């Protein structure tokens, strides 16, 4: 803890990373200083005294920026909604509606109740009575709608990604380079309408390469998803949902984030990093942000502890994510190093190989004790288990623990339960580690008798 306090630039918002953003200055597109926004929207004033850190990390600064933008979006939407409501109230029953208006009213009564109507159409031809059955589009329909418009109206190259392979969005063929996948998509999947019919059964959010992104109709170059969304809405009157899209500029390794220029030698690290820029979904357990609900759903599996046996060898893992990583060991697929193309069996093997052979490391330093990890997940686990709040209290002796697992092990002392039994001499122990040490004594004795 002394290490934390001694840091003059520790992040005041999360205490987990070294801060680098001054709270007294604006950040990104913000017109006001970060401490002003914290006070205005949260009523929080961070104490400032001689020797105090008055900085925060980029991740926390980005969250504050997103909160400000969301606040501005809600204000703008409220103004627009009130204007539309006044227009609606001022219309009378005797208003003459054009053909489009009648068609819109009929759609309200006959179309799928989950069907959505762009706000631009509502503004131009409001019906006399807003329908009760008009609901917000489901996530499934938002994805299908977005896929159809983006793939038909732009040159975005869709893809999927699995470990080290870029996979065709339509036929699931694998490629080591996105350039080859792009050529395959342009040559093989030219009839987008037919392809969309095939994927409607199992719709999924879009991952797109925007290296050569432009509108197919007017050939305007588009820089990113927000630019594409605004252009399609303002010029072509088409609505897409940006939370259904993850955009990348994939040229070659090392891969660069097109939003902050940060470089990654492993594409999977880039996909994880992108969650920091798009806080569309928030984990209610740990507060991490994610670009879409699918990533959040996958992440939440890390919080679901239980017994998950391997379908190949029967080994029992504690989480679904652990089981998925373990089952990669049984897979016939080979992971290749992006530099020398050496073949390996597991993602972590490649991280170790790139560190030892190519001197490419990703060091994540604990801000509390300076321990270093090469995988960010390991650091997060370490901080949670070692430096977290001891709020799990024993009901017998009031000792406190960071995790439920530690509390459960402690409770064995009070219950007298000894769940770990030696198969040789039937002695039992409260801890698995103690049983392992005991078994070593049997093994050593057996060696001596030989």
Biggest sheet descriptor:
5 strands, mixed
Strand content: 5-15%
Rounded mean pLDDT is: 75
Q: Give the uncertain stretches in residue-range form.
A: 92-135
Radius of gyration from the CA trace?
A: 28 Å
Overall geometric form: globular
Instruction: Report, as a whole number of angstroms, the end-to-end distance.
Output: 52 Å
The helix content, as a percent range, equals: 40-55%
- Oligomeric status: single chain
Order of strands, main sheet, comes to: 5-4-3-6-7
Given the helix and strand composition, which structural class is it? alpha+beta
Helix run count? 16
Write down how many β-strands occur, each being a DSSP E stretch of 2 or more residues: 21
Description of the structure:
The protein has 450 residues and is an alpha+beta fold. The chain has 16 helices and 21 strands. It has a five-stranded mixed sheet, with helices on both faces. Strands 1-2 form a two-stranded antiparallel sheet.
Q: How would you sum up this structure in a few lines?
A:
The chain has 16 helices and 21 strands. The chain is α+β, with helices and mostly antiparallel strands and 450 residues long.
Give the SSE layout:
Elements: H1 2-6, E1 21-22, H2 34-42, E2 55-56, H3 58-90, H4 99-110, H5 119-124, H6 139-153, E3 157-162, E4 165-168, E5 174-175, H7 178-188, H8 192-199, E6 206-209, H9 225-234, E7 245-248, E8 255-256, E9 263-264, H10 267-274, E10 281-282, E11 289-290, H11 293-300, E12 308-309, E13 316-317, H12 320-327, E14 335-336, E15 343-344, H13 347-356, E16 364-365, E17 372-373, H14 376-386, E18 392-393, E19 400-401, H15 404-415, E20 420-421, E21 428-429, H16 432-449
Helix pairs in contact: 2-3
